[in-house]
Amino acid sequence: MHVISISLGFETAECPDDLGREVTECLNSGITIYASASNIGGNGSRTYPAKYPGVICIHSATHEGNKSSFNPDPEGPNNFSFVGELIRPAWEPFKRESFMSYKSGTSFATPVAVSVAAFMIAYIRKNLPNQQWRIKPWSCMGVQIIFQLMKKRRDGYDWVSPIRYMKETNPGKIKEDLLQELC
C-alpha cells in the first residue's frame, strides 16, 4: 500500500494518541496520506488526521475553484482545494439514495485529490520514464510539490485543477518544472 485516503476527521486527538502513532508509522514507511480538512467552516479548524504534520490536508472547492463555505480557515503553507461540491457518488451506501443525488464536502474532495495525484504520477512515468528522482513524485513531499506546481491561489486556498493546469501550461514547461523541483 502506498496511499491512504481518509474522508473523516476528529476535532481533538485522543490521549494516548493511537491515531497519531499510526499516521506517523505510515508516513515513516513511505505511505502518503490524504485527509479531509473538515466541514465545519468558521466554527472550527482542521480536524485530525488532516492536522497531523506530513498528512496532505484537502479542502473543498466548486468546479470553478471557489472555496466551499464549509471549509475551515486555511492553516500553514499547504491549503490544497479540489472539487468537492456537487459530486455524484457511485459507490455504496449512496446507491440506495436517489441516483441523481449530489454530495458536497471535504470528504468528497479528498478522493478527487488522490485521483489527481495518480494522474500526475502516471503522466510523469509516461513522459519521464527513466528519470532518477531526488524526491520521488509519489512520495508525500513529491505530491505536495506537484500540487504546488499545479495550484492557483484562490480565496486563500491553493486550487488544484488538472484541466486548468494542462490547458495553461505547455508540456515542455511541465517537464522543466518537474525536473527542477524533484531532481
Helix content class? 25-40%
Please outline the major beta sheet. 6 strands, mixed
Alpha-carbon distance between the two ends: 24 Å
Order of helices and strands: EHEEEHHEEHH
CATH architecture: 3-Layer(aba) Sandwich
What is the CATH topology?
Rossmann fold
Give the low-pLDDT segments.
Answer: none
CATH class: Alpha Beta
Radius of gyration: 17 Å
Tell me the strand order in the biggest sheet.
1-2-3-4-6-5
Number of helices: 5
Q: What count of structural domains?
A: 1
β-strand amount: 5-15%
Assign an overall shape. globular
Number of strands: 6
Rounded mean pLDDT score:
90
Describe the protein's architecture and organization:
Helix content is 34%, strand content 15%. By secondary structure, the protein is of the alpha/beta class. It has a single domain (3-182), classed as Rossmann fold, CATH 3.40.50. It has a 6-stranded mixed beta sheet, with helices on both faces. The longest helix is centred in the middle third of the chain and has 22 residues, at 106-127. The two termini are 24 Å apart.
